[in-house]
Write the structure tokens for this entry.
Amino acid sequence: MDEVRKFTVIGNPIGHSLSPKIHKEFARQQGISIQYKMIEPESEDHFETHTQSFFSKKGYGANVTIPFKELAFNFANEHDISALECECANTLMAHNGKIKAFNTDGEGLLKDLENKGINLVQKKILILGAGGSARSIINSLSKIHIEKIDILSRTERRIDQIIDKHKTSSNISHYKKGSKYNIVINTTPVSLNNNEISFPTDIFDSSSISYDLFYSKSITSFQTWSKNNGVKETHNGLGMLIEQAALSYNIWNSFKPETKDLNKILGF
């Protein structure tokens, strides 16, 4: 009998995570049994200890979420091209006695936007935040014909690092006051932490779309803020979560899960 593969999701906070349900549904589609648990390191200092412990006990694969994606990249012995390009990882896998890192965030977002019929060609896009998720997304967006990608973050140094990483792409730059965008993507945890939202309110025009990487069964605070500032079409990150999870699952188990209607199975 084949040994049941062990998986986990590592993040903080993690109690709200839908990853266990998503991956168990993918395993059901494949017709296999898996174990899937949640690990919540108290701080970045504890990430390596918890992750090392998981893999030392025959752990097979890990999803990694905020705030540990850059640490996951550093933790791994090997990296695929997606992780190398953005220097962060949301997927780890035990491979020939080593840990290999991958990043499926950017591709997962593009797939969800495609599913939603949102065209990105020649659009002006604003990314809010400059952490691991932003780097993954910008890496994928930089490969398609977008008019410009601006970044707004309190940490100017992180923006400079992203721009430097993509120095051959002249269309990636700092947010400029007064600019308006076709699509605004929030990668900051404002919806998760219920922090007061203090982004500029003039970034939208009448046809702007806003997208929050975070999700909940009710509208997220970033979506509410967007609507209050004139945005008619807003989306949360559930679709991206599902699509990036499907890509991770395929890396681990060589099986492409069906994602259509998964939101209904999850109760959304």
About this structure: The mean pLDDT is 95. The first strand starts at residue 5 and ends at 10. The two ends are 36 Å apart (CA to CA). The chain has two domains: 5-103, 106-237.
